[in-house]
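Homework help thread (please don't just give me the answer)

Our assignment gives two proteins as sequence + structure token strings and asks us to describe the second one. The first is just a warm-up. Here they are:
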Amino acid sequence: MTLAVEIQLPVNALTQTQTSLNRLIESAVAGDTAAFEQIMNHSQQKVMAMTWRILGNEADARDASQEVFLRVYKYLGRFKQDQDFFAWLYRITVNVCHDIARKRQQHSDRFMSLTAGADEGAFAEPAEQEDAEEAFVHTQQRELIARAMATLPPKERASIVLRDVEGLPTDEVARIMNSSSTTVRSQISSARKKIKIYCEQYLRRRGAGRVS
């Protein structure tokens, strides 16, 4: 039961995307509101999905996403063209999520499935040819992982989302988290172990309940 990594775009497609974003950023910094709207349209689905995964519920995720783009608008002039835009955006997103998590400690008690509203498949989607039973089992697995992730400390959850869901290299995750690669590796290892233990305990409890 593993977290799926998003399909990576070809290098030339990534380069074209970054070049287009850089043009939009230049226009937005110059005061072009339509350019900023295009930046939002290009990235808001990723931001919403990531905030949902980290915070665990739609209400907090929407509040976080709104705050992310307020900060992007405020600090866009500080973005350097040699930076990776999405790495910069993820850093803002993680910081916003940490701020909201500190204010709303009860978010873990209201955790909802990460499957609804996630972009491009936060976890692997069932293939069309799978029958209804296989699809149901797959959905249960995703929801179980989502509940397990809800129990993680915020930094571990952010690290594993960036590494195992977004597919970013560990060094890049460390830069986004303002941490060291060693610390991030430790957080990811701890998170994976906790998710594994949570899932195993849940399945044992469910199996014991059926026997009784």
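The one we have to describe:
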Amino acid sequence: MNAQDRQKEAARAEGAALARRHARVALALGTFVAAMVGVAYASVPLYDWFCRTTGFGGTPLVATSAPAAPLDRRIQIRFDSNVAGGLPWDFAPETRVVEVAIGETKLVHYIARNAGSDSSVGTATYNVSPPQAGAYFNKLQCFCFTDQRLAAGEVMDMPVAFFVDPEIVKDPDLKGLQSITLSYTFFPVRKQPEPVAARGAPRAPM
């Protein structure tokens, strides 16, 4: 075998080895992606806890106590409301905008009314905009993630107590922030079908 043939053979061997490495990498990546998708579907409660603990994705934090004293700097808080299809409710904040001092605890109210002819159940999710502000928007009281049942025509007051963490003034990305929007969306809670066993065995014909 001359030198040219040896070079060709070496090139073919190197190409085959490279193809095998690419195949192994592709298989590993595919396995990793499949595993992550499975974990995501299996970990919805964990993901929700993570968001509410860190403010990820614009999710407001849940606080147990308010700051000792507010700052002089003030900021506007805007309130948004939405109702998903299938829930015949009217849902809106009593006021659309408030101005608060950073670190000040504020209580606002949303009002929900069942405009349908039957009792129905809804549950609310929430987020803030811009998303980076989620790490500093803290709620002390809220109606979210709790099933709310309204009879036909019933009206319910839904309070929200919150404050903006003074640490927000140290964030260079939010230095010029003028306002934060808190948005709620109510979704219908559909009753699960009753198991056959719970209804009792069918009676034998007489």
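TA reply:
I won't write it for you, but here's a hint about the kind of observation we're looking for: The longest helix spans residues 3-42.
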